[in-house]
Amino acid sequence: MSVKHLGPAYEYPSANREEAYGGDINFYIRWERHLMFACPAAYRAPVAMPLSEFLEHMLKPDYAAHPDAARLDFSRCVWKLDRAPWQPDFARSIADNGIGHMSYIEFASPGLDGLHGHGY
Amino acid sequence: MAKKLGLKERYALMTRGLDWEPSYQPLDKLFPYDSYEGIVIKDWDAWADPFRLTMDAYWKYQAEKERKLYAILDAFQQNNGQLNLSDARYLSAVKLWLQGVTPLEYAAHRGFAHAGRAFRGAGARIACQMQSIDELRHAQTQLHAFSHYNKFFSGFHNFAHMRDRAWYLSIPKSFFEDAMTAGPFEFVTSISFAFEYVLTNLLFMPFVSGAAYNGDMATTTFGFSAQSDESRHMTLGLEVVKFMLEQHEDNVPIVQAWLDKWFWRGYRLLGLVGTMMDYMLPKKVMSWQEAWGIYWEENGVALFHDLARYGIRLPKHHEVAAKEKNRLTHEMWTVLYQYGNALGLHTWVPNDEELDWMSEKYGELFTSMYRPRLLHLRELEQRGERFFNNRLPMVCQVCQIPVFYTEPDDPHVQCVRIVEAAGTKHHCCSDGCADIFNREPMKYVQALIPPQQIYRGEAGGARDIFEYGAWLHLERDVDTGEYRGSPDQRHWQAWQQQHKATPADAA
């Protein structure tokens, strides 16, 4: 459906379009079964950054307060990109891994299932 | 004019009698906004005036209420009424109200002024005019009632500045701006009916009763002063919906779509109020789950059954609200708790007595799932490692609430819905919000989502949550963060000791 309106047309660009990021992108990551961090996390990063650098130096420190974070091994995780199964290549860049603007990444860490037996 | 008019005559002359037929412009040109939404009105005179008030009587009644209210506010201030609160933690509820809800009263004033200009029926115009003035009065009286606390406590000083910037205040702000940017019929359906009629008890009951339970006479008195206005507003809400439904059968699907949308948006907004009830009130009134049961599942549903004769059904996704009612506030409190570095009110882990109350009210799910989480947070705090999450969250493109809700049938997994429009992906917190997005995608792609604004450099150049807090004019660890150890708590304890130690009290 479209917006009912007065006047000629009702078309607008997205306020969060990729061009507003000066070559970087905005994307989101959820660590499954770790609800101590209540929401998927939002990032802005350059597309040329190697994925390993992003994961080790931007993502991992954010979860330092969780006891599972110290044992987190990304190579043993199970990944999804925009809801589809995905095998990232950590040495390659964010862009080369197919991560785009407003992508949504989910990963599970078998063996690290959060606290209290219910994914906290 | 006759020397003495009867009440009915006088009412007719002083309301609809003030209207006139335009002679040099067509009505459609004079009132361009009241037809483009597709609502068909065959007879504007069929509008039954719900207020039955003339302007002169209105001023008289309101002035009387003002005199009483301000006399009590004066007494409250002169007698240091703030010392009789249950606990200074209660003020987080008042801060949230001042920052989040008082600006809505003002927005309602603007919205009804606009709607009042837009309708060609004089009865509807007058109803909107009076409500517009009511809402302005509510904004003013709330500000006056709360301003006393600004002399003694943090977090009250920049509500108007924060309202346009803060992530958690974009939730109520975007709710109202969505309504105000719709046509006048959708506006009154959203605010007068869905919000004021169906859901208002869930907004005012916890806040005003909560104020009374927690010794806040200033807010309680404001609540009484607003009560008679609120009942007029509710009457208007029901009237406007019945009017549309009775005028033409083509209006039914349009109204139904609005009810679906505004039930869900109102419900999402009320999550903040539920969290206020369960967590911010040191003395509890009732749980969110109980309030939802009484005010929606009994009263609200009965109302929708009454509307069934017009072809109206229950709003979409109401069953999701039922599934979430035993976890919503517990999930939301931990969101406020962890993003507390950018919050203009304090958060804390409830004490044991409060945790027992929650176990009693919420049963097994709370005791097995949420209580251990809160105890974990308490343990971290006691070790000097109070938990904060300083990474910006994913936020729903429609309700603008961080995406923390869990799947309706699985409380272990966050519910994320991906929608796409204008060549860009967007995220929603629920099927309810995704439906709203997909119905009018061009409206919601324009939304300013706070974490995205920050990353785009549109939040004063803030690069992290602390710089963002400063941009909101929040003083770190004074206005923000943990309650325990805050200046508010230290002052409160000192004042309570002085208060108890005075000879007058000892006698």
What this model shows, in words?
The complex is a heterodimer of chains A (120) and B (507). With 120 residues, chain A is of the alpha+beta class. Chain A is built from one helix and five strands, in the order E-E-H-E-E-E. Chain A has one helix at 51-62; strands at residues 24-31, 41-46, 78-81, 84-86, 104-108. Chain A has a five-stranded mixed sheet with strand order 2-1-5-3-4, with no helix packed on it. Chain A is globular, with a radius of gyration of 17 Å. Chain A starts with 23 loop residues before the first strand and ends in a 12-residue tail after the last strand. The mean pLDDT of chain A is 96. Chain B has 507 residues and is mainly α. Chain B has one domain: Ribonucleotide Reductase, subunit A. Chain B is built from 21 helices and four strands. Chain B has helices spanning 7-14, 27-30, 55-78, 91-118, 122-150, 159-163, 170-180, 184-198, 200-213, 217-247, 251-280, 288-307, 318-324, 328-338, 352-382, 431-439, 441-444, 450-455, 465-471, 487-501, 503-506, and strands spanning 406-407, 410-414, 417-421, 424-428. In chain B, the strands form two sheets. In chain B, strands 1-2 form a two-stranded antiparallel sheet. In chain B, strands 3-4 form a two-stranded antiparallel sheet. In chain B, a hairpin with a 2-residue loop joins strand 1 and strand 2. The chains are: A alpha+beta (120), B mainly alpha (507). Chains A and B meet through strand 1 and strand 2 of A and helix 14, helix 15, strand 2, strand 4 and helix 17 of B.
